[in-house]
């Protein structure tokens, strides 16, 4: 599985449209995703203190668009999954409510697939 953090309102719109798009897709050509062990780092760096989020759990075998693992930072130590096209909603196994604690820290939902 791979994961993507987004706002619930954007995910709800995607369910109506049949596809999920991001501003990054329009600018860079791909949707940033994470492996399970990368999710919390991304959450704390990019979504600190934000509410109204969902964590999309994505089955790569169901993607219509190409999935590429790559390191675009040039440091060579951490590959991240990128979806090169819109995310078809059928590939999303579950949208988990994803909110920080009262102290602002995120934890992974208890029922993530392995």
Secondary structure tally: strands:
8
Poorly predicted regions are: none
What is the average of the pLDDT values?
91
Radius of gyration of CA atoms, rounded to a whole number: 14 Å
What sort of overall outline do the alpha carbons produce when their principal axes are compared?
globular
Terminus-to-terminus distance: 7 Å
CATH architecture: Alpha-Beta Barrel
Helical content stands at 10-25%
Count the domains.
1
Strand arrangement within the widest β-sheet reads 1-4-8
Please trace the helix and strand order, writing H or E for each element: EHEHEHEEEEE
Percentage of residues in strands: 25-35%
Question: CATH superfamily, called what?
Answer: Protein of unknown function DUF952
CATH class, please?
Alpha Beta
- Given helix and strand content, the structural type is alpha+beta
- What name is given to the CATH topology? ADP-ribosylation fold
The biggest sheet, with number of strands, parallel, antiparallel or mixed sense and barrel status, is:
3 strands, antiparallel
Tally of separate helices: 3
What can you tell me about this protein's structure?
With 114 residues, the chain is α+β, with helices and mostly antiparallel strands. The protein has a single domain (2-98), classed as Alpha-Beta Barrel (ADP-ribosylation fold). It has 3 helices and 8 strands. The strands form 3 sheets. It has a 3-stranded antiparallel sheet. It has a 3-stranded antiparallel sheet with strand order 3-6-5. The protein has a two-stranded antiparallel sheet with strand order 2-7. The longest helix has 10 residues, at 8-17. The protein is globular, with a radius of gyration of 14 Å. The mean pLDDT is 91.
């Amino acid at each position: 599985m791979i994961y993507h953090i987004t706002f619930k309102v954007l995910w709800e719109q995607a369910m109506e449209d049949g596809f999920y798009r991001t501003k990054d897709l329009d600018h860079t050509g791909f949707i940033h995703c994470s492996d399970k062990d990368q999710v919390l780092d991304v959450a704390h760096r990019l979504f600190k203190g934000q509410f109204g989020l969902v964590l999309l759990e994505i089955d790569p075998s169901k993607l219509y668009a190409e999935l590429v693992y790559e390191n675009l930072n040039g440091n060579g130590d951490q590959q991240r999954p990128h979806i090169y096209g819109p995310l078809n909603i059928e590939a999303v196994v579950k949208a988990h409510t994803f909110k920080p604690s009262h102290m602002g820290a995120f934890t992974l939902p208890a029922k993530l697939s392995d």
